[in-house]
Amino acid sequence: MKIGVLALQGAVAEHLRSLELAGAETVAVKRVEQLEELDGLVIPGGESTTIGKLMRKYGFMEAVKEFSDQGKPLFGTCAGLIVLADRIDGQDEAHLSLMNMTVSRNAFGRQRESFEADLDVKGMSEPLRAVFIRAPLIKEVRDGVEVLSEYKGEIVTARQGHLLACSFHPELTDDYSLHAYFLEMVREAAAAKASF
Ligand code: GLN
Q: ipTM for the complex?
């Protein structure tokens, strides 16, 4: 299984490492042509406005939507979650608009710009160590979006079929279980395709 990490801006190397620990072959993606060889794609944390701008500039908006239309899984973390959402609080325009949810940026307040927590995630047997850095939260989920975890009553992980999003940085600890969960989604998607 080959998984790409969108490498326009943000925390790329750490995601590559976590994916490799979870057993994937990986590649840092800088050109749209590279998407063809991939079974799944991670959109990392960083700064969503910058990532969105660079995605538009280099043709990734259409290409990643097509990738998703083929049923290939996407995993957005932190800024990547914002890029996947179809509504961003206080902004007129969204980016990929693939997940039916409204997100709020920098939602945990100034004094809590950065913190760690252990989260229970639906479908995972052990709590996950999560690092939040100027994190967004999911304010509302709509059709087809399942909530996988909450932190103090706020939604921080969600899944919509082959799309996964979390508001924290799962790649900054040695716990690669959410990456392993994503790889399972990729395996399922590939198996579903093969059975057509
Ligand atoms: N605050 C950033 C944004 O709005 C996201 C932060 C992160 O990815 N760590 O894009």
A: 0.94
